[in-house]
Design a protein that fits this description.
The chain is an alpha/beta fold.
Length: 243
């Protein structure tokens, strides 16, 4: 299995190449430089592996939610490659990628000074994922680690004020930039569910690649004309006064 993935929906920019279970990734934290970086990242990974796009099985990209411009960059790059090489595409949620990165990083363990591992082990398998969506809202999704170590959505993703988030009655960890901006509102609402939170988690193409391969194996790939962004907020293109 050979799959190329890109992620440009936040201030981070990354590309990853999945080849038979091994993931190679290029990642940089560079706001507003995505258009300059993403294609060289892809060229480096493909050249290093000695591959042409026609030799790939599929493509994956972070389809949102996230920055309007960033999502469009990833969508355009993947659509261009898919059209040229006649490849299927797997759209992957940005929130799912953040949760997947958390699960991969921790792999059923956290530093013992953060929480009591024995009494809170189940919490490591649930990520209350929040991205700052501006305008007083967050992009929100609750993900649980499944039996194959993949992030599985519980309920629906949404864009919502932090004070009105929906969540299942389950314990977990808060992750993502939304927790840095709205930690008081979120902890007030989820104090019984969340042991603590981590703000620094960003989506990475490596997680997009892993979830993309899973989606491909589940038959979730789509033709290029259906590989479209997911904004969650319907009025993303409107001016602030119009909103």
């Amino acid at each position: 299995m050979k799959l190329l993935a890109v992620e440009t929906s936040t201030e981070a920019c990354s590309a990853a190449l999945y080849i038979d279970g091994i993931v190679s990734e290029r990642f940089e934290l560079t706001p507003k430089e995505h258009t300059k970086l993403i294609l060289p990242m892809i060229d480096f990974l493909m050249s290093e592996a000695g591959l042409r796009p026609q030799q790939l099985d599929a493509l994956a990209f972070s389809c949102g939610p996230g920055s309007f411009t960033g999502i469009r960059i990833a969508t355009g790059v993947i659509q261009g490659i898919a059209l040229g090489a006649d490849l299927p595409v797997i759209p992957v949620s940005t929130l799912a990628a953040i949760a997947q990165g958390f699960f991969d990083k921790n792999n059923d363990s956290l530093q013992c000074d953060k929480i009591n591992i024995e009494s809170h082990l189940s919490a490591l398998n649930v990520a209350f994922t929040a991205m700052d969506a501006r305008m007083g809202e967050i992009f929100w999704g609750v993900y649980q680690r499944d039996e194959k170590n993949f992030a599985k959505l519980l309920g629906k993703e949404s864009v919502t004020p932090a004070t009105t988030v929906d969540f299942p009655d389950i314990k977990g960890i808060g992750i993502g930039s939304g927790w840095g901006v709205y930690n008081q509102e979120l902890m007030s609402r989820l104090s019984a569910q969340v042991s603590y939170y981590e703000v620094e988690h960003l989506p990475r193409a490596g997680a997009i690649a892993r979830l993309g391969v899973q989606g491909y194996e589940q038959g979730l790939s789509v033709p290029v004309e259906l590989a479209m962004p997911v904004y969650l907020r319907n009025n993303v293109a409107k001016k602030e006064s119009e909103r």
